Amino acid sequence: MINSTSTKFVLSTLAVMVSSSLWAADAETADTQKDAIGLERITVTGVARGTRVMDSSVSVSSVSPDDLAISSPRSSAEAFRIIPGLKVESTGGEGNANIAVRGLPVASGGAKFLQIQEDGLPILQFGDIAFGNADIFLRIDSTTQTIESIRGGSASTAASNAPGGIINVISKTGTSDAGSVSSTVGLDYDTLRTDFEYGASINDSMRFHIGGFVRTGDGPRDPGYTANKGGQIKANITKEFDSGYVRLYFKHLDDKSIGYLPMPMYSDGSSISGFDSKSDTVHSANLLSTLRLDADGNISRGDMRDGMNPIVNSVGLEASFDLGDDWLVENRFRVSDVSGNFMSLIPAEVGSSSSIADSIGGAGSQLLYANGANAGEVFQSDLAMRVHSFDVTMNDFGSIVNDMKLTKSFDDSDVTFGFYTATQNINMTWMWNSYLMEVKGDNAALLDVVAADGTSYSDNGLYAYGVPYWGNCCQRNYDSDYTIKAPYIAASTKFGDLSLDGSLRYDSGDASGYYAGSVQSQVDMNRDGTISQPELSVSSIDNADPQLVNYDWGYMSYSLGANYQISEDLAAFGRISHGGRANADRLLFGKVRADGSVADEDSVDEVDQYEMGVKYRYDSLSVFATAFYSETEEQNFEATSQNFFDRKYEAKGLELEGAYYVGDFDFRGNVTWTDAEIVADALNPDVVGNTPRRQADFIYSLMGRYNFDKGSVGVNLIGTTDTYAQDNNDLEFDGYTQVNAFASYQLTDALSLALNVNNLFDTVGITEAEEGSIPDNNIIRARTINGRTTTATVKYEF
């Protein structure tokens, strides 16, 4: 846990990094040390044309494969934890992370105001699709060259629906004839993964790169079955010409990974007897399949082992050519066929066994073990769980994206004209059921409800086809298409040491399609010729009464920035921006009118941002500091609480990034201070003046590494100060510091061995909870960071 003392430690550590410049004369002065945070590199993310970081008026950072090794990520989103300004709640497994940037809200889930890209194009047009967060469809592997990010208002005109920032995962392209094969095995949990990659020149003007991974295992929390299984392959080929290049690329992803949802624990994160909050999961080998009615009313089965199962096949084209007379044309195009599943379990209630039984079967009902070693026996525990299956089929999340821009250069000035177009399908079906389970982390058994008169109110642990505890809200099907068109213009110029840039973007779009909710009917689901109690009222899709989706939107974004090069090693910048974010599927079932239209204020959320900062380096020290202020309007919907949001927020803060080299040691870190507030709420005015849920005053990532002749050892600290569980600011979570460790040793010039420890000290860290106040029994449903996990990797480079 972290308190004010450890907060002071974080700040003092950063201060030491800055003050260390006073004795940096003895440090090495190699180029990599002189430019420790990449102020000399050319950034390509979120800018109209590649720009040296020292000359730009944006906050930009990059993450290298070496940085990833030290930070010990267990998922794609965990790779983003070391990026300044980002609060990454990556406790959902390989996907379903919540990512906030600089105090912009995460009122429901996903990365609403942030865009995650691969090679300059978005993975999805909307980063917070219900049960379809963008990070579900992303895997970081050995094909990754770097992860580049920008935070702040410049992203408003650089991409659609990304006013808070952009994260761009950039792939290797075969620029060197080299490759690698590595195998990673879990030492204290079940995982086995092999990564491979190879790139080479075909001839003087062509090169290629291919790579990916395959893996299998249970995951960091043992569910009682193989929960992670699948892989990815990516390939690209580049043809260079005298005036430019053309690149074709391909990606196939089919990976099943367990998805963790809030789990039972005490309000301080400590464990309930029989259920370890750091290593257990609600998933169980005693609940592997669900029986449901699909979108067309057909009886079908879902497999819990599918977990989060993204299936992606995408093909893209990237081209850049010098047209002569200082004209440059660039185009990026990608078509993606995307589908999959989201299968997981969430406790809807954790409480008294007798009260839960009575609520289903009437007074005097009791619970019996439905399966497992004690099947048929009376359940004796005082505690039980009402569990809902989040059984979602992502039928079609396909997209077509094209971004073309034409740049004209005039001496020290550039003008870029661009046009972005995209289509995004969101076609999905929710088929949720209700079960009873014991509170146990090691293959929990299902429970049956038997009334006082002997009537059974459940079938093998299932007590409802649907979710009556939540008003049978969530049998849903929707098929909607979203089209985006966005012309934009960007201009930049230099007057000596002063660089100025400005940009405009107009996003327009339209949504069309339909959605349908739940209807109840009697159905013999198991086809045994008898109608059981759960079969008396079965939830299915109300296909007889579909609702129309037919609305459009439009908004203007702008960004103005200036950068002044005070000296070779010192620059100051400032920026003012206005941007927006169109809302998609989270408007359905409440915000769409009968004719399919949507109120203008609901269709788009707008963000105003102001920022200023400095970039400084001295010998082996580099520092990047940005002060920021934002005003945000938001409409949103949360699936688990069935609540809509209509709010305004304000946030101000300071983002610090620094790096320092001394001898064989190097240090890198960032700290972000944020003061955020709900300033207006049309639906729940009681929360006005409160701090938004899960918004910390300080978030930080600090890394240190010692390099020796044959390898290196490193430690990474990732942490947060206290946060509130919900917007009522009642239940408060303690802050925490997660320590990750890394060591590598070069056995030969080509063969290396690495040890990687995530959460070295087995710390408890709660990231989110369903409850806003402590219940009478002190039990909440929450997600925590995983306990300690250790892996060993053998890597051969050739």
From TrEMBL:
Annotated signal peptide: 1-24
Keyword list, A-Z: Cell outer membrane, Ion transport, Iron, Iron transport, Membrane, Receptor, Signal, TonB box, Transmembrane, Transmembrane beta strand, Transport
Superkingdom of the source species: Bacteria
Domain TonB-dependent receptor-like beta-barrel residue range list: 313-760
TonB-dependent receptor plug domain boundaries: 53-166
InterPro entries for this protein: Beta-barrel_TonB (IPR000531), Beta-barrel_TonB_sf (IPR036942), EF_Hand_1_Ca_BS (IPR018247), Plug_dom (IPR012910), Plug_dom_sf (IPR037066), TonB-dep_rcpt-like (IPR039426)
Membrane topology annotation: Multi-pass membrane protein
Compartments (UniProt record): Cell outer membrane
A Pfam family of this chain: Plug
PANTHER family, alphabetized: CATECHOLATE SIDEROPHORE RECEPTOR FIU, FERRICHROME IRON RECEPTOR-RELATED
Family: Belongs to the TonB-dependent receptor family.
Protein name as annotated: TonB-dependent receptor
